[in-house]
């Protein structure tokens, strides 16, 4: 199809009330159909129909995950630029778009509270729980191997939980900082680090998406089993890449795509694992490249989850 026809199609797709609202919402980050439905106050089939039209016109991208589907604005390129241009022209229009934005913020707070509530309940028992689904020994051995015994100046462990990474790697950093949203997790981590005599690390209460780095840049940033608690892991990566020292690296450990839907209800997961393809898109958008990728099958359990490790560096 000629470019002209494609543009007409894209403009037709965007040129409707609900679909413009959807584009404005998705420009804030990747969202599930369920959240979009709650914000717009329209039926799910209706919202899905609008999203399908936007996807057919190439303005948004869909990724299916278990019983849910997530949508994001088109990946960098012409269509993304077009959406950007359309939204710039209505940036100051307020009204319904501002109300949608407020609802989105409320929904994000609610998700965060759910995760926080879950982690405050499980904090004391987390070190036993974390082992359940995961080939932990193999993953930890790989983390040490991939880091190659190199000592970094500053390590930042985001979503540090009970401080296991700060403990495992305490000889790999001069100064380590853990950030976590859960007071209970922070409490357990503090007690553990002090009991192990680790005095080159501290843990602090904070939100990954809004904590102040205080102008400091880090050499190694770790997100170990954290990204699947976010609707938009790409947004987290964008933020994290900003506080990475030149030549620094980001180590990500998370589940491969799976279908254990109950983890959403019982364990506050938002994403059912992260795929290699998605990670490439997120890394690219954050100006990073993937240097190492490894997969770890769970040998202990039939229904065990596969864990993946990614090492990223700035391009
Ligand atoms: C599955 S635990 C992993 C903890 C640790 N990295 C580990 O592997 O044992 C996820 C942690 O992320 C924290 N978390 C979730 N959302 C967060 C946010 N927005 N900001 C900071 N921490 C967050 C939770 O409180 C929890 O401690």
Summarize the SSE layout with pairings:
Layout: H1 3-14, H2 17-26, E1 31-32, H3 33-40, H4 44-56, E2 60-65, E3 68-73, H5 78-88, H6 95-122, H7 126-129, H8 136-147, E4 152-158, H9 164-168, E5 173-180, H10 183-195, E6 201-205, E7 218-224, H11 233-242, E8 244-255, H12 262-267, H13 276-285, E9 288-296, E10 307-314
Parallel strand pairs: 4-5, 4-7, 5-6, 7-8
Antiparallel strand pairs: 1-3, 2-3, 8-10, 9-10
The chain binds S-adenosylmethionine.
What does this molecule look like?
The protein is α/β, with parallel strands linked by helices. The protein folds into 2 domains: 3-93, Winged helix-like DNA-binding domain superfamily/Winged helix DNA-binding domain (Arc Repressor Mutant, subunit A), CATH 1.10.10.10; 125-314, Rossmann fold. Helix 11 links the parallel strand 7 (218-224) and strand 8 (244-255). It has helices at 3-14, 17-26, 33-40, 44-56, 78-88, 95-122, 126-129, 136-147, 164-168, 183-195, 233-242, 262-267, 276-285, and strands at 31-32, 60-65, 68-73, 152-158, 173-180, 201-205, 218-224, 244-255, 288-296, 307-314. Helix 3 (33-40) crosses helix 6 and helix 11 (233-242) packs parallel to helix 13. The protein is globular, with a radius of gyration of 21 Å. The protein binds S-adenosylmethionine. S-adenosylmethionine (SAM) binds next to helix 6, helix 9 and strand 5.
């Amino acid at each position: 199809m000629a470019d002209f026809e494609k543009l007409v199609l894209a403009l037709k797709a965007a040129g409707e009330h609900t679909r413009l609202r959807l584009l404005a919402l998705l420009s804030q980050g990747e969202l599930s159909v369920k959240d979009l439905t709650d914000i717009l106050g329209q039926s799910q089939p209706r919202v899905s129909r609008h999203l399908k039209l936007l996807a057919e016109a190439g303005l948004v991208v869909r990724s299916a995950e278990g019983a849910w589907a997530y949508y994001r604005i088109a990946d960098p390129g012409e269509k993304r630029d077009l959406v950007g241009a359309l939204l710039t022209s209505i940036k100051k229009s307020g009204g319904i778009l501002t109300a949608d934005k407020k609802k989105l913020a409320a929904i994000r707070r609610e998700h965060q509270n759910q995760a926080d509530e879950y982690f405050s309940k499980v904090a004391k028992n987390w070190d036993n729980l974390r082992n359940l689904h995961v080939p932990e020994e193999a993953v930890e051995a790989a983390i040490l191997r991939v880091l190659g015994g190199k000592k970094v100046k500053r390590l930042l462990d985001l979503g540090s939980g009970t401080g296991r990474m700060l403990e495992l790697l305490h000889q790999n950093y001069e100064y380590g900082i853990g950030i976590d949203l859960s007071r209970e997790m922070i409490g357990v981590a503090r007690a553990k680090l002090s009991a192990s005599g680790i005095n080159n690390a501290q843990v602090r209460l904070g939100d990954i998406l809004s904590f102040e780095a205080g102008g400091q840049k880090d050499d190694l940033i770790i997100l170990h089993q954290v990204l699947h608690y976010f609707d938009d892991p790409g947004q987290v990566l964008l933020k994290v890449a900003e506080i990475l020292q030149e030549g620094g690296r980001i180590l990500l450990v998370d589940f491969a795509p799976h279908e254990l839907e109950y983890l959403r209800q019982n364990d506050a997961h938002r994403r059912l694992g992260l795929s290699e393809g998605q990670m490439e898109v997120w890394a690219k958008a954050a100006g990073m490249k993937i240097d190492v990728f490894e997969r770890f099958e769970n040998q202990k359990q039939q229904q065990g989850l596969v864990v993946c490790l990614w090492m990223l560096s700035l391009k």
